Amino acid sequence: MIAFSGARSGTAPLTWGQRAIWDAIGRTAPDDRYFNFGRVLEVPRGARPASVAHVSRAVGLLVERHEALRTLVAPGPRQDLRDRGAVEVAIAPERDPEAVLAELCGTAFDYEREWPLRVALVTEGSAAGEEVTHIVLAFCHMAADGLGAERVLRDLRLILLRGGLREGPPPQPLDLAQWQGSAAGRRQAAGAAAHWEREHRRIPPTMFHVASGAAERPPIRRALLTSPAADMAAQRLAVRHGASTSTVLLTAVSAMVAELTGHETVAVLPIVGNRFRHDTRAAVTTLSQEGLFVLDVAEEGFADLLARARPAVLRAYRSGYHDPGDRERVVAEASRDRGVPVHPYCCFNDMRFAERAVYRDEAPIKEALDATRIAWPLSQDRLNCRFCVHVNEGGRISLTADTRWLATADMERFLVELERLLVEAALR
């Protein structure tokens, strides 16, 4: 066990980001392990040899520094910050760190009783004694998002090397909840809500509205496209048109959704990091929320579509930092006024941490098509969405969908045609 003693305890409402993921967890349970994720940190060379005691101390300091890592979910739901306790640590001698991570992430968290951080230390023996080589961290999504987890790794690495951190702690979830309830926070929320309200008057009720007639058991499947060609094509398009590769990919996904569903107006919910404010940039918490991206897709070239998508992307990013309560109100009102439930059930999540766009020549893109592969790595019973595209490094684009609304054959066709669209646009 790793004991910790923090500076304060207390309760507060959930932050907007915590509320968003809590709602998603509720709609996905009992398959909510889907939201678990983790990181493996190799002990820095400058901190070796690292004993179990030395690494345990570092993890304890980390949990004391970042209050999200010792916050439970109380009934209400509310944040329940504890000032002291002990995190269980597993010792994994001579194990593969990635296999250990998969085990730690394999079961849902007990949100009211279990600390939102699971820890394992991979060790190897020597004549001098047992040495920690890797630290495996599994996060509950209520405590951190991907960028928050990267901040945890950065701080843990520095604590191992220096014995501590010189700078004070960043803003904490309790502080963030207080700001979001303030007059300034309500102004931010009102601006975002106006965007959701305006667009909900015109978007289709949902993107995938026709039953597939080809449901699988279990119904949720994931198709993974590994396509270096699509990655290079997106980079070539980004440089050519002065856009980010994320905008290029979101635009291409929207065009393909329009082709697949027949909708002329496409609504997509991109996951927005919400780290553009000084009080959120370095915070360890879950800040990511869905924005609302709306694009009218007409018969035109990809370059024209991309030009119209760019301002729509900015509006979507701004709408991502919103009060989920306001969004619930907007959705309920739009559904009542239109006489049909209104929800896109169509998500886009660019999970890469860095933007890389290098102008690619035509020949390598064409040659890379031979390396394209499709795999099916996941199936489960429940998901809070019908269609969700994830983008990862190395040209890995996955589509997780509910086969009751999109058959597996159409999932595969979507990814193949997405690659074709990107490559043809890049080479045109």
TrEMBL record:
The record's listing under InterPro entries reads:
CAT-like_dom_sf, Condensation_dom
Instruction: Output this protein's name.
Output: Condensation domain-containing protein
Q: The organism sits in which domain of life?
A: Bacteria
Q: Do you know which PANTHER family this protein is assigned to?
A: FATTY ACID SYNTHASE (PTHR45527:SF1), NONRIBOSOMAL PEPTIDE SYNTHETASE (PTHR45527)
Question: What Pfam families does its record include?
Answer: Condensation
Residue stretches making up the Condensation domain: 11-284
Transmembrane annotation, as ranges: none
Taxonomic placement: Bacteria, Bacillati, Actinomycetota, Actinomycetes, Streptosporangiales
